UniProtKB/TrEMBL annotation, chain A:
It holds the Pfam family BPD_transp_2. One of its GO terms (cellular component) is plasma membrane. It is a multi-pass membrane protein. The keyword Cell membrane applies. It is found in: Cell membrane. This is ABC transporter permease. The keyword Transport applies. The chain crosses the membrane at residues 29-50, 56-78, 85-103, 109-130, 195-214, 245-265, 271-292, 299-316, 328-346. It comes from Histidinibacterium lentulum. The lineage of its organism: Bacteria, Pseudomonadati, Pseudomonadota, Alphaproteobacteria, Rhodobacterales. It comes from the Bacteria. InterPro entries: ABC_transp_permease. GO terms for molecular function: transmembrane transporter activity. Keywords: Cell inner membrane, Cell membrane, Membrane, Transmembrane, Transmembrane helix, Transport. Its main location: membrane.
From TrEMBL, chain B:
It comes from Histidinibacterium lentulum. InterPro entries: AAA+_ATPase, ABC_carbohydrate_import_ATPase, ABC_transporter-like_ATP-bd, ABC_transporter-like_CS, P-loop_NTPase. This is Sugar ABC transporter ATP-binding protein. It comes from the Bacteria. It holds the Pfam family ABC_tran. Residues 6-245, 246-497 form the ABC transporter domain. Keywords: ATP-binding, Cell membrane, Membrane, Nucleotide-binding, Repeat, Sugar transport, Translocase, Transport. GO terms for molecular function: ATP binding; ATP hydrolysis activity.
Amino acid sequence: MSAEADKPAPMAPSRAPGGSTLLDLAIRYGFLALLVGLLLFFAIFAPGFAGPRSAVFIFQSVAITGILALGVTCTLVVGGFDLSIGSVATSAMMLAAYVMVVMEQSAGVAIVACLVMGAVIGVVNGLLIVKFKVPDLLATLGMMFLLVGLQRIPTEGRSISVGMTLPSGETAEGAFSPFFLAMGRHRFDLVLENLIPISVVFLIVIGVIVWCFLELTRHGRLMYAVGSNARAAALTGTNVNGYKILAYMISGVLASVGGMLLAARLGRGDIASGTNLLLDAVAAALIGFAVLGAAKPNAFGTAMGALFVGILLQGLTMMNAPYYTQDFVKGAVLVVALVFTFALSARRSRGET
Amino acid sequence: MDRSFCRITGLKKAFGENLVLCGLDLELPAGRVTALMGANGAGKSTLVKILSGVYRRDGGRIMLGDTAFEPTSPADAIRKGIVTVHQSINDGVIPDLDVASNLMIDRLAEPGWGFFLRRRALLAEARRIAERMGLGIDVRTPVSELGVADRQLIAIARAMAHEPALLILDEPTSSLSAAEAQRLFDLVDMLKAQGVAILYISHRMSDIRRIADRIVSMRDGEIAGLFEGDALDYEGAVNAMLGHGLTETDLAPVVPGRAVVTLSGLKLRPDSAPFDLALHENEVVAVTGLLGSGKTALAQSLFGLHRPAAGRMALDGRDHAPGSPAEAIRAGVFMSAKDRASNAVIADFDIARNMTVPFLGAFSAASFVSRSRERQTAKEMIEALSIVCQSERDGILTLSGGNQQKVMLARWLSQECRILVLDEPFQGVDIRSRRDIGDKVRRTARGRATLVCVAELDEALEIADRIVVMHDHAVTAEFVNRDVDVAAILSAVTGPADPQETAA
C-alpha cells in the first residue's frame, strides 16, 4: 500500500517553483523546433529545396491562405469563428472580375467594391451574431452558403473571363487592368531578379499590422478579454458587441483582399477555384495555437502555421509525393498541433496550481 | 463491514517542493458534523481532493472503518463511500435535465439500468429519493428553473443516493441566503441522524455555530486545533486557524463629507416600495440583506446594468441614469461585480493585464499599450494589497481566491472615482485576505463614496461606517456602525412580515 501511495500523483507533475521542465520547453518551442527540423530534412533530402526561389514559392503558395487565416484569427480572438471567409474570398474574386470585365470599370473601382463588400459582409455576420444571437458557427455557415450561391447569379453560374459571352448574348467588352493583374503577378527584385511576388509583401505587411494590433494596442487586448470572458469584459465598460463586429469586419476585409489577389493571379473570375481556402486558413490559425505554447489564437502563430503547412507541402512535392496525399498531411499536422495545444498545455496549467 | 468512521493518519501531499499536507491526522466519527476551518492555503482543498479521489496522496493512510481507502479516481472514491459536494453548485447538477434525471443520473450511468430510459421507473425512484431527502420539489421540474438553494439540495440528494460513509460539504452555503441555508442545515441534521460522518468546510462562523459538533482548525498543512464537547470554543478555533485571535474590529466611523449619490423615491421594481438613500464622501456604506433583497439590483442601477422602475438617482447633484457600464464608468461610478469567476476574472490574462482592463486607455498612447507602465502599476498594487504571487506576470488562476479578489479590487483602485461599488467582495475569500481588502477599502475611502453589498452581517460590521438593510428591494433600516445593536439589524434583515428566520 505504501509503495502505491508514495508514487507522485499522475496529474500533478512535480515542478520546481519558477523553473521549467522538459514539458514546458516542449510546449513552448516544440512546434518551432519541428519547423526547423522539417526545413533541415527537406534541405538535405529534397534537391533544390534550399534556395531563395523555393523559399519564395513557399511564401507565395501560403500568401492568400495566410491573409485569410489572419482574419479568422481575429474572430477566434473574440471567441467567435468565421466560416464564411472562403466564400467571401471567392465572392471578391468574382466581384472584381465582374466590375472590370462586365461593367468595364477601373481597377480602383473593383478594389473599393471588394473591400466594401468584405466589410459589409463582416458587419452583417457580426450583427447576426451580436443582435440576433445566432451562434457564430451557424451565422457564418449560413453566410457561406448564401455567398456561394450569390456569386454565381450575375453570370448564371459561369466563370468570368475576358471576352466571355454574357447571359444577354452580348460579349463582355471589359478587361482586367494591367495594374490589377500586377497585384497577383508582379515580382520585385531582391538580390535575384524577379524574386519577391507582391502577394508575399501583402502577407508580410498585413501580418505585421494584425500582430501589432492584437498584441500591442488596447483594442487588441480588449478583444482578447472579450474572447476570454465576455461578461467580465462588459462589466469593465468594454464595448463587447462593437469589438465582436469589428473582428468579423477585419475578417471580411482580409478575406476580400485574399480574393482579389486570387483574381489577379488567375486573371479571371474562376467559379471552381478557392475551394480549399477556408479549410487551409482555419488549419493555419488553429496550428498557430501551438506555436510558443500560446494555447490561444495569435497572429504570429497563425503566420507560422501557414508557413508550416506551406513548407511541408512544398517539400513533399519536391520529394515527388503524390498530390492526393496533401490533404491527409495537412489534417495530420492539424491534429498533432491541436494535441499539443490542448492536452499538453492543459496538463501544464493543472500542474501549476 | 463496519464503516463507522473515517480515520486519517500521517497524510502527506507535496506539489514539487511545496509541502501542502505534512502528516495530517484526523478522525471523523459517524453521525457527527466535523467543521473544518482554515485560511486559504492551509491545505483544506488538497485534503478534500485527496479524499474525493482527485489527487493521490504521497504518504499516510486513510481507513474507512477497518478498510483501507484507496481510490483510483473520483468515481471510485464515491463507490468506496466518500462523497463530496463541491462549492460550485453547477458542477453537481445538469441544468438542462429535470430534477428526476439529475437525481438518477449516476444510476443511469450504471450498466445495470439497461438501454431504455424507463421514464416511469425513473420518476418513481427519483420521487422516493426526493421524499427521503425532504425535497419539496416536483421531480419533473427542469433544474434550470430552480434557484441556487434547490440545486444545492439536489446535488446533496444525488450524493446521498450512494449511501456514503462520509459526506464532504465544501462551503455549501456560500451562495445561499439564511432561509435557504436553514433548509440545508435541516437536511444535514437528518443525514447526521442516519449515521453519516459529515465533514463541513466553511468560512462562515454562523454556519459553524449552527451545525458543528466538533471543530477542526487547519493551519499550514497540519491540524492546529481540535475542539469538541458541549460548549465549543469558537474563538479558540479561529485563533488556532489564524495563529492569533480575531481582533475586535476597532473601527472608528468617519465623518461623512458632502453627498455624492442621492437616491430619491427610487423604486427598483415596479412593485417594490420607494426609498431614499444618500451616500457621502469618505464613508463606507454596507448594504446587507437576504439573497434577493435587491442589493445587487441597487448596485446594478448605479452601474447602468439595471433600470429602476421609478425615482431619481443623482451623482454630485446631476441626474445619473447610465445606460451601460461604460457610461457609468465615465461618470465616475466603478463597480466590482460579485461572482468573481464568471463576472470579473479574465482567465487567459496575467495579473497585470487583469488589473488594467477597465482603464487601458490610461496605460496607452495612441492606442498602444505601454507594458512597462502597466507592469509598474501592477507591481505597486501587488505591494499595496499584499497580493501573494511570484510576479505580476503570473496567470490569474494560479492565485488563491482571496488574492484573485484583491486583483479585482486593484482593477478599480488604479483610477479615482466618485463612488466605488463592491458587490460581495468577500465571496470565497479567506479571513486574512478579507482583512487586507477591508483595510484597503477603508484606507482609500477618502474623497469618494463607497458602497459594499454583503450578505454576511459580520462582513458589514467589519468594513462599514454605516449599515443599510434592504428587504424586498427597498431600504428598510439604517444603522451607524458604533455600538450597534446586532439583534436590531438582524430583525431588519429578516423583515417585518417574515418572522420565521434569523441569520445566526
